[in-house]
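ingest -> fold -> write
write: protein_1
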Amino acid sequence: MEPTRAARKRPSRLQDNLVYGLVWLACLAPLLWLAWKGFAGDLGANPIEKLIRQLGVWGLRLLLVGLAITPAARIFRQPRLIRFRRTVGLFAFAYIVLHLFSYVGVDLYFDLGQLWKDILKRPFITLGMLGLVLLIPLAVTSTNGWILRLGRAVWQRLHGLIYLIVPLGVVHYYLLVKADHRPPLAYGAVFLLLMGWRVWDRLDRKR
């Protein structure tokens, strides 16, 4: 019997593994690049600040990539792209955790008292910490097992926190920079564009 068109187009396990490997490599590449730049002493005049900031920026970028996967899957009619949201989201969480730990460990020398003072007195750190705290339950419950435990409706409501976490990250970045606000504004514009698509898509489905 001749295979159906869907069966002929279904990628093999080898192709799946290859694509997953490429996604992992793409997500790891910024960290490897930062490690190489640090080893070569090429992180600029203030390498600690550059390292901390770049880890946070890449975490924000990956959060936006995760939000962009659903529109891309719908627009290009590639539903299998949805599989990569979890991987990208967990890498984003990892970069943001590294962003925090590099700040606490390298910049503050694990002075938790100073960290608490910074959280209370510096708004950009307050917002950044709030975003990270909200991101933790999303990372913990990212598995299929948690979807079954919570139920899909509850799980989806919980993961809707991402629509608050990303703007918190954008504002955190905006308040952090002292001169050139174009990058955080650009990320904010991307977020608004992605949210606009979701509103349009929901209205279109209702019609």
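write: protein_2
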Amino acid sequence: MWNVGGNIDIDVNNVNLSSNAVITSASNASANAGSINLKIADKLESRDSTISTESTQADSGNISIATGFLTWLIDSSVTATVGGGPQTTGGNIQINSPYFVLKDSQVIANAYEGKGGRIGITADTYLADWTSTVSASSTKGISGEVNINAPLTNLSGLLIPLSDTFMDRAELLKDDCETRYRQGKVSSLIVRGQELIPMQTDDVLPSPFPSN
């Protein structure tokens, strides 16, 4: 039975989590949950795994993730939650990474009766698909704050799966085109390159001489 969670400090080059791996600090007593601090020189990759702090009676611990290159969450979660009374606060989550990518994942700093924690994300590029969530809310209390500082932000409204249904050719072709197709009379377009020495990318493309 867990009572008070201690702090977790990890300072490595890379972290790879998979198959329901867990990094967690939790408390079911009056003391706060411990904090998790990940300092990663290169990349954090998490698949089907969890990084979390949790407290049932006191404040949740904070989570800090700093990577030198990439933070990539796939079907994973980073959560700092608290289930106590109005005086409790969800833990804060701070993520600093040049590239931060979420795929079907969650970053959550929620509370039940207390105040939701703060989430801060600082990245050069931030990408999140439409199934991912970043939330700092409270069921009965005051919601927390989410601050994303990145040039490219959430793509949840732009990324949708491509349809696997092919369009009917006959519906797309006009009647006269379809008639010629059945008669074996079809057109073609052939693209040929110029028979010249390859040019530099910043050169001007010359026009061909007109034929007499």
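write: annotation protein_2
The two ends are 92 Å apart (CA to CA).
The CA atoms of residues 37 and 64 lie 5 Å apart.
pipeline exit 0
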